[in-house]
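Hi Y.,

Following your request, here is the sequence exactly as I used it, all 219 residues.
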Amino acid sequence: MTISRSKDYIFTEKDGRLEFVGNFDGYYRDHADPWGQSATEEMSGYYRRARERLLAIIGQCPYHSSILEVGCGLGYVCEQIRCRFPDSQVFGLDISPVAVEKARALFPHILFSTGNIATPNLLTQSYDVIILNQLLWYILHTMDAVLDNCRVHLSSNGRLIIANGFLRNQRYGNDVMENYDGAFRYLSQCPGLKIVHSAFDNDDEEHFDASFVLTLTAN
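Below is the corresponding structure, written out as tokens. Let me know if you'd prefer a different format.
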């Protein structure tokens, strides 16, 4: 999320604008803790609050026996979910094979897999909860495919949770969705899905914290 940390791996600046690079394998290969996911660095306060909010949202879902976190990275959030909901099956998915390999080493009791959530027919089962966690800026230009994939693989009473930080000065993707209000408008128009909850929190961090919960619309 902090662009300076992922400079030249995920985003690069060209002519005063940010361009998406998406070299996630390189970033995970060259850095032990990309984006400070372990929550032991300067982003620890933000992560603790954001993850606690996410866990609370999961607890309010009508069912959570099977939970998939998309964009699981090193697996720290999957492990927190597993500890909070020990009776749930927790799965992690990430586009980076390097990240998944490291997640498996850190948390071998969780099932991690590699894949691009925008790929049709990628998932092989349905889930009570699908989480797109800190992922928006990397999927903006494939959002329709991503949301359609999630919709198809939600159980009948399932919930899609989108949890994300928003920079105070957004410099990328403004043409797709600009800050929280733009994200709300975009998600409100998703075919087959409807927003049942949204929240926006300002904790005086570098990032605002926002979440959206969506469910299937009636046929």
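The chain has a mean pLDDT of 90.

Thanks again,
Q.
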